[in-house]
Every structure is written in structure tokens, then in C-alpha cells.
Amino acid sequence: MNVVSRRAFLMGLAATPIALSAGCAAGQSSPAGTSSRPLPIPPLATATTDAAGTRHFTLTAGAGSSEILAGKSTATWGFNGSMLGPTIRARRGESVAFTIDNGLPEATTVHWHGMHVPARFDGGPHQTIEPGARWESAWTVNQPGATLWYHPHPHGSTEKHVYRGLAGLFLVDDEVTDAVDLPKTYGVDDIPLIIQDKRFTADGTLDESDPTDIGLLGDTIVTNGIAGAHLPVSTERVRLRILNGSSGRMYNLGFADDREFHLVASDGGLLAAPVPLTRVRLSPGERAEIVVAVSGSNALLRALPHEDHAGLDRGDAAAFGVQDSFDILELRPSENPTGSPALPASLATIAPLDPTGAAVERSFELQWFMINGAQMDMNRIDFSPTVDTTEVWTVRNVDNWPHNFHVHDVQFQIIDIDGSPPPPALAGWKDTVYTPPGVRFRLALRFTEYTDPTFPYMYHCHLLLHEDQGMMGQFLVLEPGQKPAPMAMDMSHQGHGG
Ligand code: C2O
Ligand code: CU
Ligand code: CU
To answer: N or C: lower Cβ tally within 10 Å for the chain?
Structure first.
């Protein structure tokens, strides 16, 4: 892998931004045509409860084939099926246990994105599951109700594993999400929506070539595993729990008629109050829960060109697909919709983390495939926060590429963006944030409960190609005075995906 040559390659392209966006020169696709199929709703995972009250789930990663495109069969990977995985649902306070079997021909992992979980159960690159092997993970859910997700995290191959279909949602419920008057019947008026972009060869095979520097940009939008989906809606309003499960594509989501919707939750749970919006931006890995009124006429959810080019130069914006538009999902109202609750004025109390008492400040510069000038080393611990302390991290994208920033184990709060308070949409709990070039983010993070001198948590760019190329680092959470005791990893059998 040669960073400089890839960089030079990009700079060359940027001067002549023609036909770069992965085959979507027209920048359009119309999934909701005559061949439109109803949006598949991932089933809720079943669990068995043992005498101690722990709920046991099983996931098997395996290969299969899926009808992503109507009438065509595509080889894919999935959990407990051929594509994506069941939606896991658990309550705060509940203890959960997972048995994960790897039926794939290569090593993988299962990471609980957004979950506060002991490091050895986090499912990052240190918890490899060899083909045919089993891995067990268990913890007690202890965080606000939220829309989280799970996906593989094998070092160097995450993009490929997710692209082939390995991803699922993990919903956390608590007494606040129970009580809040929002649509909450799963699959009826509370709809999971995993948005991904894919590209196919003529025979329907997933095209895995990655011609851009942000990774694979598809020309076909796939929602919950199929292209061209629509959603029949039987209620006045619907709540969409949206995950950007793409490798590198950033979505500026809105409706074709510019209708207003309300953002009610971000990555880590409910916002303080619904935020009226006509657009919401999601970079890879981020989630948004929105509530939109559908009764009357069709509501067409679209990905629109980013009005601000996502902070990129024009040429780069085109090269990175930021100016493409796609139809994502047509919401079709019924003739006699069931009434929906009126939107509550407030949703949740978000206690601000206090950055004035921060034990440590750290800074992170994002550039090329590096953080602070270094690429991921499985055998290097970058730093070690002390448990029960609040830290302030300054994150700056000093590149001309788009990057984002994701941290394992915690949900953080954005203190300020270039010195100004975050907009309401970014004022709740986050685990992943889009970092446009040149902009400085200050984050407050509090590390609690779990310490481990051996197994680290990751922080990284969630553009999966960048992550695979090493735009990632690792930290241990330690007790005061505890010494790191990392385990030496033999990386000789692991390949980089680039
Ligand atoms: Cu969604 Cu480290 O990952
Ligand atoms: Cu994660
Ligand atoms: Cu990046």
C-alpha cells in the first residue's frame, strides 16, 4: 500500500472530475419503479433466557445467495441468513450473551457498534473468529435506549465483509424510550432502515473493485438488503431508524417534496427534543431516527447532493459521490391510516459531560490513511484513559478528503465545532461524527465501568476503506495506576485489504 501514490492519483483525478463517481455519471437511480418490492423488515432475533435471567442469542455468519436485484441471484454473506442479520433487541439492565459461529471461509469478528461493552467482548480486530470457530460475548446492557448496530471488524477486511452483507441492527430499550410517545411498533410504525450502496456486474455478482479513495461507491441503493424497495405505511406518521451501512458513501437525506420531518434520536439515543429538519446528513456508521408524516401523498426519501459539498472542494465532492442523488425509499400511505401520537415537545434529559473537569486533553489529526501521522498497529497502544474520568478530544481533518471519527465503548458529546456549539442535530449522544476538511471538533468522552490492561478499544475513521488501510488506533481503559499488559499479536497471517 502506498499512501503517496494513492494521494497523487486522487489529485490527478480531482483536476478532471469526469465520470469518477463509480458509474453513476447520471447521478440518478429510480428504485421505486414497476419492479418495486416492499421493504424487507429484518426479523427480531430470538433468545433463550437462562435461570439467571441472561438472554442468550446465537448468530451464525455464513455465505448464501440473495435476490438484491429483482429476479437476479447474488452471492452474499449474512448472519442467520444469506444477507444482513436479525435485529437484536435488549433492555438496559438486561444481561445478554452471544454465541457466534463463523461459517465463512475466512476469519471475521462481530463488533457491537455504539455499545458500552467490556473490551474483550467488543468484537474488534483482537477478537478474531477463525473459520469454523465459535466466539462468545456477554455483558450487561447499561446505556440509554438507542439504535446501535453490529458488523464485522477483521483488520484489513471490514469493508469487504460488510459490503458482502454482514450487518444488523441492535436496538436498546429503556424506561425513557418505553415512556416516550413516539411510534414504537417494530415493523409497523417503527421501521429499521439500513441504507447501503452496491455495484453489480452484468451477471448480478457484487462488484468489489474500489476505484475511489473513499472506497467503494455503488450506483445502486440497497435498503434492508434489496434494491428498489417501497414501504407501505398504515399509520399517519412513521419512525425510521436509519443506519448508513455503506462503505464510504455519505448521504444527505431528505424528501423529494422537501417536507419537514423531525430528528428524534442520533447514534446514542434520544435527543432532548425533536428537531425539525428537511435534511439530515449521515456518514458511514452514523444513525438517525426520524419521524415523518406520510398520510395523504407518497413521501419519497431521497439522497440529495450535499448543499455544502460536505465541506469538500467541488472536484473532490464529485469524485467522492457527494453530489450524486438517489431515490432511497418510497413511503406509500394507506387510504385509512391509523392515528399516530402527536410529537412530544421533549424526549429525554441529556446530562452534559463537564469538560471543565477533564482529566486529559488529546488531539487527533486525520489525514490520508493515518491518525496523527500513524497507521494502525495491532501491537501499539496509542494511549490509556483512566476509568471514571472525562477527557476532551480535539479532532481535526487536516486532509482534503472526507473522513469521520468513531470511538468504541463510549457515546460522546460534541462540545463545540470550530468554537461554536453544535447544531441541535449533533447535540445528543454520538459515537461517530462526520469531520469535514479543516473543521475542528471538540468532544467530551467519559470512560466508565470496564477496565482491561490487555484488550484495547478502537477509534478510527468509519469510511471502511480508510479503516482497513489503517486509519485507526487503540486505547486501553485502565484503573488508576494500572499498568498496560497488552498481548502481542502475530499479524503475519492477516492481510490488508487494500
Ligand atoms: Cu462500526 Cu470500529 O466500528
Ligand atoms: Cu464501533
Ligand atoms: Cu477517512
So the answer is: N
